[in-house]
Amino acid sequence: MAKIRKVLVANRGEIALRVMRTCKELGISTVAVFSEADRSALFVRCADEAYCVGPAASRESYLRQDVILDVAKRSGADAIHPGYGFLSENASFVRACEKAGVTFIGPPASAMDAMGEKTRARANMIKAGVPVVPGTDALSSVDEARAFAQKVDFPVMLKAAGGGGGKGMRKVEDPKEFDSAWRSAKSEAMGAFGNDAVYIEKFLDKPHHVEIQVFGDTHGNVIHLNERECSAQRRHQKVVEETPSPILTPKMRAEMGEVAVRAARAVNYVGAGTVEFLVDSARKFYFLEMNTRLQVEHPVTEWVTGVDLVRWQIQIAEGAKLPLLQAPTPNGHSIEVRVYAEDPAQNFMPSPGRITALHTPSGPNIRDDSGVYAGYEVPRFYDPMISKLSVWAPTRAEAIERMKRALSEYMVKGITTNVRYLSAIMDNPEFRGGDYDTGFLPRQHQALLGRENEHLTELSVIAAAVYAHTQDEKRKAALPAAAASTAPSRWRSFSVAGRRT
Amino acid sequence: MAKIRKVLVANRGEIALRVMRTCKELGISTVAVFSEADRSALFVRCADEAYCVGPAASRESYLRQDVILDVAKRSGADAIHPGYGFLSENASFVRACEKAGVTFIGPPASAMDAMGEKTRARANMIKAGVPVVPGTDALSSVDEARAFAQKVDFPVMLKAAGGGGGKGMRKVEDPKEFDSAWRSAKSEAMGAFGNDAVYIEKFLDKPHHVEIQVFGDTHGNVIHLNERECSAQRRHQKVVEETPSPILTPKMRAEMGEVAVRAARAVNYVGAGTVEFLVDSARKFYFLEMNTRLQVEHPVTEWVTGVDLVRWQIQIAEGAKLPLLQAPTPNGHSIEVRVYAEDPAQNFMPSPGRITALHTPSGPNIRDDSGVYAGYEVPRFYDPMISKLSVWAPTRAEAIERMKRALSEYMVKGITTNVRYLSAIMDNPEFRGGDYDTGFLPRQHQALLGRENEHLTELSVIAAAVYAHTQDEKRKAALPAAAASTAPSRWRSFSVAGRRT
Amino acid sequence: MGTVRYHAKLPGQKAHAPVDVQPRGGGRYAVTYNGKTREVDALGLEQGTLSLLVDGQSLSAEFEQGNELLAVLLRGQVTKLDIVNDRQLRMRAASASFAAEGKQLLTAPMPGKVVKLLAKVGDEVQAGQGLVVVEAMKMENELKATRAGRVTEIHVQEGQAVENNAKLVAVE
Amino acid sequence: MGTVRYHAKLPGQKAHAPVDVQPRGGGRYAVTYNGKTREVDALGLEQGTLSLLVDGQSLSAEFEQGNELLAVLLRGQVTKLDIVNDRQLRMRAASASFAAEGKQLLTAPMPGKVVKLLAKVGDEVQAGQGLVVVEAMKMENELKATRAGRVTEIHVQEGQAVENNAKLVAVE
Predict the structure, then answer these.
(1) Is there a contact between D78 and B420 if contact means CB atoms under 8 Å apart?
(2) CB 3.0-4.6 Å disulfide test: which of A66, B200, C29, C48 passes with C40?
(3) Distance separating alpha carbons of residues C130 and C126, to the nearest angstrom
């Protein structure tokens, strides 16, 4: 295949920026597509070209295959990178790209067909001899669904057949919650993937979510790049990811890697993909699903392997062979946290709005993949993740301390974020112990909201009084006839000196 | 020795912050000392405690041993990290710390004595069988100096005996310039090190500046951590550093490493140090000097070895053994550039002032060690370096592209910086070729100032016209009786909407 | 320069406690709170940011003024408090009104879209029962009654976009 | 909405060239320059920042207004230019004055301290000869005469701190 010269990134936010960064390093031009709600977004400003593809609602913009392909044609893009979410696991889009003569940077439609629909993937994996979690196909009625749930016994998981990322996913522990969970899972699945099919899986005992990064090329080579531990989840969305997994032995890593490669081979996989497993308390592992795209949490793999996964995606789309033919031994340890615009104390309620000030961490082995900037208004229409912060260190213990340090430097004003909650995770004994299952965050919820430090509260009162005083002095100084009883304040001279006060 | 609990950082700017970051990760409290000119500096805000030690002039603040030791005592600091410059190579300060019962994080005074005075170091190295550049001891009169220069023939280098970092250093090519260079070198040396002794070295043919990072512990172990190539210099200050050096073979690396370890052993070295060599066009290498402290450019070594050098410094000061007993094989490639507040087109004239806006690069394998923030006024009293930007990649070619990408994201407003000049270095064929000597930057000066891109100029005119129009509209909108001939502008609604316009 | 008295009330506290601020020039203050007097050196940076040195401790303090409370961000902890000067405290006392009792008004906790109403006017509802589902940022959030009672007002329709703090449902 | 004419002069150009800006609403403009008309979509972000889409090209443009010229930072290139509207151009023409010829006034290129004067009033100097040494940020910078002539004014003393653009030495 020919060298790619110009890539249209059919996505938004941090992942659009992430892809563009590698394109820039490869000398490839970038085309952004954006919804009306994203006109001011950072990824629009960083692209070489940018075109509006419709209103805020994804279905009218980021999911409009026709409009996006039209932009590709108009701009002369020879390839499309879909990021994650949106059209990234949409086989019909892959076929449309092919028809339009544009390279889709991702797996072939056939592999997506085989893996994209979660229930079909289960069937394919069973055929390939890969262990799977007990469960159903997509179910047509709530009664049928309830009946299965009662048969395998609660708790069960409801899952969207059409996509991943926690959208349309519900854990149901109590039969009484079943109907309401069924309804909202279907509705969310429709909103996120345009497909409201939902299926059921038995919920395993204290499961760990461990996934294997795989990569295939067009020459029939498939390798894995080790695992990521993703058990720290809230509302079925990942919050913290790390590699290596603290619970994996080298033997398990090799076994799971081998199974993941087998799964990918079974569908003739090409490009970057992730095979997700659940690992139960007996350390048996079960195929959960395959994500046929780049994963949000890919930076931790990049840290410990030294591989730029987006670069590989592009080179493989150009027809190159995989640069490695076996998994590299993990070098050190990496942790990623997702910074969300949300309030952990309010059931993780999203908190869109204007970021009035922003300070991101820096220094040794810190990486901030952000899609925002000071002055930017986080729109209400999309995922509340504003940044992914990742660190590397020689050992897990050092990586945790580094992450704590990095989070202590993270300052976002104007909206509520989960930064302090993330910091509490780093301090939590269960997390530090390493054996935390997917029930970890719900179980520790109260502890993770943190306790008040009385010394800091006292200092905050003092700080507030000094601040109130400086504000009062500024107000006085601004009045034509200021109360003359107070001596001139230095605060006034600051504003005169040109500080934005 | 006991565990260190609280570290006073006797330095400012990015290096103070760098040291504090590792302290924080180790659970060690930090104490900042600052001059009156640095009250608003980032390192003051990031320290756990901070104390003013005097007026702006270094001699009255950062070089005041008594005041700094008094702060250490008052704050209960059990150790002092000197950073680089200031008191970092001052043996009398090491002795004063010892007397005060405070651990100095650095080599013993004896090693500093042996290496700190550059002329004594030469003598010691000759004794230890280490090859040195032809040169003199410190010289007492300009006549004696001129006589030596005429004997070994021009060009020669004038160098401060009391310190490094390019301060008090002058290359003299023309005998007519000798007296003026002598005068200014002495004056600068006095200002920077409180010692105006200057000596002369023969200037080698097309020399490369290659240095070896060494580390010793209190148990008699000394290792090296490979080299750094630092030949890209302007006004005898390093601008770009990288590792591995593009001109080193594994055999040379082993030989130079062995000589560097021998040099360090000869003075019973403990802690982090750097043995600087000149490598001539025949690839023979000569000892230049030893910097008995952490080097500005240490991040590139951290990238390719995975070692946190500041962590090692602290642990060795606590009495720990070196965690490695031989040089690790370099993993990949790292490049650092120094972002200076200066104008390359005006002979690198410093450009202090207020930073009105700042956007620093991010994404995979980027590290920004900065001491500034948006709104900060870069003071006129100190070194103009505002940040060190470093990158890692598997290969040198990829590292160069990554650095270009990172620099393209670097945006500083309010002051002039060398960001574009740095970017031009990354594009320069001589740099990309890898065999660039210390004459590289002066030789390529005009080329590095860059040529105008006419297409960008045209777009800039268009942007300027639109900007002028929006400004005019804002002005009209702000007037009570706005010219009614123009329709209401959307710019007005932006300010109403709360954007800081 | 004379001492200026402020009054601080932390969440959970019944009354305001005095904080005395005595300016000493050059950005220095003596601040007395809880019976302790501390030396404070304060430097104003960006809007809403102070660099403070409190008895040598360095604190970068960020402030955000909410509708009622001032949020202070200090070393990762957010403390929301009411802080007023003498005059403001007197005005507050004068205009104190009695909040309507017994009525729970559910408001939108963030901007979003109402995707489902789970009750209608006249319904008896239990504490914890879902009243309305609001979608924001691709997640559905079920908002629940915090008390048992009867639904007396519904201010929105399904499909309607709502702003932050918009009235949704009242339960009495 | 009518077209508004601006006038741009780049360094090295003798005269201003017209740039026509035609607002089309919603932040869109048609801009004509050098005989080409381009579609521009402009969004104002922070003070002095525009996000521009020019015929699809995305440009994050930063502006800094200097004493005389506007600096535009675009994709790493800084372009300094004079940009004025019709009224400003007319005023400029009216107040045009003839710059004093023949005198070179050396001013401080940055704030710093005069560490050495290398000439005194009445000295004959050559082009390139050092006149004064200014220290800033720990580096000494020798400022040189750009023309040969006689030193007629010295405005500073050794050891004196100087602001940016302070007058130092005149050569005629």
Answers:
(1) yes
(2) C29
(3) 9
